[in-house]
Design a protein that fits this description.
This protein has about 110 residues and is mainly α. The protein has a domain of about 70 residues. The protein contains two helices and two strands; from the N terminus they run αβαβ. Strands 1-2 form a two-stranded antiparallel sheet. It is elongated, with a radius of gyration of 23 Å.
């Protein structure tokens, strides 16, 4: 009985560390998917910024601010995947405001 208990106590940390490694690999894959999706979203936003706009519209989407926020999110995800240091970074808030009133020139 004592040998079985010892075997369980020895194997438990090995199993839990293996489970954490699998979770980390899965999380890394998910973060990489998010980065690819952000790249695609940024490309669409940049293409949309180049489209001619109707001057009669009161509000326009601020594509440059949107692209800047996408780049900030992507950089944060990339920093998470390969951190350069152990200390927390100074967080910069996203704009979140993409309405521009008045004339819009892409």
């Amino acid at each position: 009985m004592q040998i079985c208990l010892s075997a369980v106590l020895v194997c438990t940390p090995l199993l839990s560390s293996h489970a954490r490694a699998a979770g980390t690999a899965s999380e890394q894959a998910n973060v990489e998917v998010m980065i690819r999706q952000l790249n695609a979203l940024e490309a669409v936003a940049q293409r949309s910024a180049g489209l001619p706009s109707e001057s009669a519209q009161r509000y326009h989407l601020d594509y440059s601010r949107l692209v800047s926020d996408i780049a900030r999110i992507r950089q944060g995800l990339q920093d998470y995947l390969s951190p350069s240091r152990a200390q927390p970074r100074d967080p910069v808030e996203l704009s979140g405001h993409y309405n521009v009133s008045g004339e819009h020139t892409p």
